[in-house]
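Workshop exercise sheet. Pairs work together: one partner reads the sequence aloud, the other fills in the structure field after running the prediction. Swap roles for the next sheet.
Pair: D.N. / O.F.
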Amino acid sequence: MELIFTLVVLVYASYFIGCLLPKNKYKFLCAVFFVGFGFLLRNMIAFHLTKDYDAYIHYFSDSFVFVSWVDYISKEPYLYILYRFFGLFFSSNETIFAAIYYLNFFLITTFFVWLMFVDDVRTWKKNIFFTLFYFLFAHVLLRNGAQYVIFAYFIYLIYRNRNTYLIFLTPFIHLTSSAPIILVFHRWKYYRWLLLAFVLLLIPMLFLGKFANIPLLHTITYRIVTYSQEYHFSLAHYVFFATIIGGCAVAYYFLRKRFWNPIIITTLIIYLLSFLISPIAGFRYSPYLLMSLLFIKVEEGEYVRLNTLLDYGSVVLLGYFFYSLIDTHSNDLLLQNFSI
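Structure field:
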């Protein structure tokens, strides 16, 4: 167990130092260490100790049948395609999903390496996103982990007047992206009216969708309700909600008028609506809001010293990084002895 915790520290340290360093050979070396230590850690933790593992193993099989294109989309073909692909080489579900877990790990790791080398996002912002979501995305979420990092990349780009067509893959990866994908139209001059219409349609659809005879809509609402049934929400979810809202208040204090941009407002509305439906659903949509708050391009101006202090001070997030490891894995992780 000591070796696991040592590797966690090394993964965190290599990423944190890599974000602090300017682009040079030492930054590249930190990236290599980050990937290497991360792979060792992923390899040492048994897949069955990862949350959601049993659900993947029992839900997926080679007998999936799609009766229509709506049914194909509603069953989120991304993971099914991976399952069928690796099924060409392996016979058991356990081996197939081991391959998918490794692929997902490298996809998520690639994103965080890219983020490490981004110049116009401060270290403390990178570190917050990394600490909160590294284990969740890289170790747990086989279906929507890739979707989250594509959206993070997309939001980073649109803040800088660029774009990526990868965003159009996200509904095929996980249906929950059907809401925030409206950001594709954020530059349209009538976007505020589009957003208003979207919200007015979304509210009754989410609350009445399970009664409607629309397969795709029923699937989306079923997924949201399932979050509440499979995971018991607790006081921690309300504490997280208060933290998110507090973060928005702090962001408004520093951003002022820039806070009221369509990206932040859209993700904030979606987060609040999803939280009203279920704190669990709210947690699932919180990464989009955090992306919009952390990746906005700002001029440092008079806050250079504050940003520098936050950069170095964010090292204290190591404590939460440990908590994230434990929270995303079975309790047996603390009881099992590991060896390479």
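Discussion prompt: Residues 86 and 99 are 7 Å apart (CA to CA). What would you look at next?
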